[in-house]
């Protein structure tokens, strides 16, 4: 019995010292549980509408508030310029674009709300249309102090129109995200695993004894990874589009150039991150969990598998600045939203800033031996 | 000394508070096998790495074949061959590819098969590094150190961990390389290796050279002090017994 206990204690010690095993046994499942637990998968999923408010009056603000609902979310509301809200509708980010006119809430005037729907989503159109009718009716009665039992002709009119959206639905949305995630995985893990191995085996030291030195070798390694990243992006997008039956914006030849630029930027970012980690970590045992701790949350928080909009706002407020979010958003904009590298703004700035930060860290932590 | 190919002059190197190398000076003659002996942590490897241009000395001067190591480490690296204590090569390259890659790092072209045949590995040109035995790995690392036809070959514990047969083969190889015209600097803790191979040896202890001479002269000096070994040596050693029983042929 004593021997058994002693052996069990030793074995437990060995297990808990193996951080990688701990990661997969505990940290990873917990992470998945927490992240998926925060998603609002069951219950009423409020359709999203994008609003442009020309009136900017107290009345229009009340209308927006009423559309959002009091306790329970009725509609998910975002605001923007007329171009932005139409773009959101066209590419599936929202299900309706609403323009509140200047004369909304001006006494004696007939205000007409301009509402545009994506004709592909009839069910959500019906929900939004009903909500609009009820909310505008209710608000009008409140302003005019009409008793509930009277039915009045609505003086807030709703003018509805339809467009054919271009978004590719979830599948088209998923492909560029997964391609972005794959860039992260290649950048981080192939660099971490090969470099830490070369380092611990002394391969880099041996190279340092040659007149060319290890820096050239490293440059060759990184170039290889960059080529892999670009090729893998092509393959994932082509195969994904064929297998899932969606058309990505690849009819345009320039899209491949744009994708290459983004893949290289993303590759540079995550390869540098891999360098930083492998400089930090002393052995493969510590490098792998570190790479996982960094990549795993990003995988779920950067809108790769599901949109950021299903996550609570306190979380997306931060996760929108993650490097993978910028890369996934950029790749998505180019493949399904018809953007080009020159029209990408935030994504390019975000990626560039991250590259600068991570390269600075990498040059500080990287060691040859 | 006439025509010294290595001149080390008062080399010092500190790691934090430890004097790893504490004022080492010596010269190596062209064409000799020079041994550096000493217990682990005595400063052999650090000294060798300073000569190889892989580490900077805190002070002192090292000149390799007329080139100041501190001023032009790259020029030094291009005329020396280096075998490190821990020699790892890429697992997923063939031996011929490893040799070819290193030749490119020295910007020379070699016939990998010819280089491998110098160490008796031509038959394994298509093998991967991980498939080699300990002795073969050592021979490969010597082959790689020979790709640039070095003036000086540095061998850091070349036979540690090898069986007696493989060790003897490495010894024969080292002698052959010397006979082909190279100067060899080797570190070891095997005294029979130093006695067998080295023309001169330096004994290093706590970062200093405490003795430097030919093996025979050092033994004579010891005997002159009236030293008597505890056990009288017999005509043969256990090493001879082992080799007589198991043969001199290599097992790999």
CATH fourth-tier homologous superfamily of chain B: P-loop containing nucleotide triphosphate hydrolases
Query: Strand-residue fraction of chain A?
Result: 5-15%
Helix percentage range of chain B: 25-40%
Strand order of the largest sheet of chain B: 6-7-8-3-9-10
Which segments of chain A are poorly predicted (pLDDT under 50) over 5 or more consecutive residues?
Answer: none
Give the distance, in angstroms, between the N- and C-terminal Cα atoms of chain B: 42 Å
Query: Which chain pair has the greatest contact?
Result: A-B, 15 and 17 residues
Order of helices and strands of chain A: HHEHEHEEHEHHHHHHHH
Tell me, rounded to a whole number, the average pLDDT of chain A: 80
Oligomer: heterodimer
What does this structure look like?
The complex is a heterodimer of chains A (369) and B (252). Chain A starts with a helix and ends with a helix. Chain A has helices spanning 2-17, 19-38, 58-68, 82-90, 122-144, 169-201, 203-208, 214-244, 253-280, 284-301, 313-319, 323-336, 346-365; strands spanning 48-53, 76-79, 96-100, 111-118, 156-163. In chain A, β1 (48-53), α3 (58-68) and β2 (76-79) form a beta-alpha-beta unit. The model of chain A has no long low-confidence stretch (mean pLDDT 80). With 369 residues, chain A is an alpha/beta fold. Chain B has a 6-stranded mixed sheet with strand order 6-7-8-3-9-10, sandwiched between helices. Chain B has a 4-stranded antiparallel sheet with strand order 2-1-4-5, covered by helices on one side. Chain B is an alpha/beta fold. Chain B has one domain (29-51, 82-246): Rossmann fold (3-Layer(aba) Sandwich), CATH 3.40.50. The interface between A and B is medium-sized, with 15 and 17 residues.
């Amino acid at each position: 019995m004593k021997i058994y206990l002693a052996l069990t204690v030793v074995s437990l010690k060995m297990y808990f010292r193996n951080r990688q095993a701990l990661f997969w046994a505990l940290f990873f499942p917990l992470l998945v549980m927490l992240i998926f637990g925060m998603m609002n998968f069951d219950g009423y999923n409020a359709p999203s509408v994008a609003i442009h408010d020309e009136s900017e009056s107290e009345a229009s603000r009340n209308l927006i508030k009423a559309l959002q609902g009091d306790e329970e979310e009725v509609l998910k509301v975002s605001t923007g310029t007329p171009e932005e809200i139409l773009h959101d509708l066209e590419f599936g980010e929202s299900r309706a674009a609403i323009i509140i006119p200047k004369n909304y809430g001006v006494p004696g005037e007939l205000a007409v709300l301009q509402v545009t729907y994506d004709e592909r989503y009839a069910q959500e159109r019906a929900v939004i249309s009903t909500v609009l009718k009820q909310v505008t009716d209710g608000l009008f009665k409140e302003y005019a102090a009409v008793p509930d039992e009277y039915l009045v002709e609505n003086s807030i009119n709703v003018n509805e129109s339809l467009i054919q959206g271009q978004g590719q639905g979830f599948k088209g949305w998923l492909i560029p995200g997964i391609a972005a995630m794959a860039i992260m995985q290649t950048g981080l893990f192939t660099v971490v695993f090969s470099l830490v191995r070369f380092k611990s085996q002394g391969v880099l030291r041996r190279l340092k004894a040659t007149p060319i030195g290890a820096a050239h070798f490293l440059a060759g390694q990184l170039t290889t990874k960059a080529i892999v990243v670009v090729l893998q992006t092509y393959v994932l997008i082509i195969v994904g589009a064929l297998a899932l039956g969606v058309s990505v914006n690849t009819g345009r030849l320039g899209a491949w150039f744009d994708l290459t630029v983004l893949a290289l930027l993303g590759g540079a970012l995550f390869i540098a991150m891999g360098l930083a980690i492998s400089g930090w970590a002393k052995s493969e045992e510590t490098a792998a969990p570190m790479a996982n701790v960094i990549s795993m949350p990003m995988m779920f928080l950067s809108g790769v598998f599901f949109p950021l909009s299903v996550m609570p706002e306190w979380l997306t407020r931060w996760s929108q600045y993650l490097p993978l979010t910028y890369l996934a958003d950029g790749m998505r904009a180019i493949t399904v939203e018809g953007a080009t590298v020159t029209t990408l703004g935030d994504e390019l700035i975000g990626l560039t800033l991250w590259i600068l930060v991570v390269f600075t860290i990498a040059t500080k932590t990287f060691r040859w031996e | 000394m006439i025509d010294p190919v290595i001149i080390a002059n008062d080399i010092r190197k500190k790691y934090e508070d430890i004097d790893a190398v504490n004022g080492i000076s010596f010269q190596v003659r062209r064409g000799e096998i020079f041994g550096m002996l000493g217990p682990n942590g005595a400063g052999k490897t650090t000294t060798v790495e300073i000569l190889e241009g892989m580490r900077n000395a805190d002070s002192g001067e090292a000149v390799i074949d007329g080139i100041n190591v501190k001023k032009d480490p790259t020029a030094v690296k291009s005329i020396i061959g280096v075998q490190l204590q821990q020699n790892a090569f890429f697992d997923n390259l063939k031996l011929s590819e490893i040799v070819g890659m290193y030749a490119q790092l020295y910007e020379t072209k070699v016939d990998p098969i010819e280089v491998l045949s110098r160490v008796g590995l031509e038959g394994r040109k298509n093998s991967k590094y991980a498939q080699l035995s300990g002795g073969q790995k050592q021979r490969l690392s010597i082959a790689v150190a020979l790709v640039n036809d070095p003036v000086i070959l540095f061998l850091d514990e070349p036979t540690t961990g090898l069986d007696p047969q493989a060790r003897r083969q490495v010894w024969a190889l080292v002698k052959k390389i010397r006979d082909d015209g190279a100067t060899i600097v080797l570190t070891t803790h095997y005294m029979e290796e130093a006695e067998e191979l080295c023309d001169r040896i330096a004994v290093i202890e706590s970062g200093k050279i405490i003795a430097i001479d030919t093996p025979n002269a050092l033994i004579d000096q010891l005997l002159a002090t009236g030293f008597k070994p505890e056990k009288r040596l017999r005509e043969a050693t256990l090493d001879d017994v082992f080799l007589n029983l198991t043969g001199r042929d290599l097992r790999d």
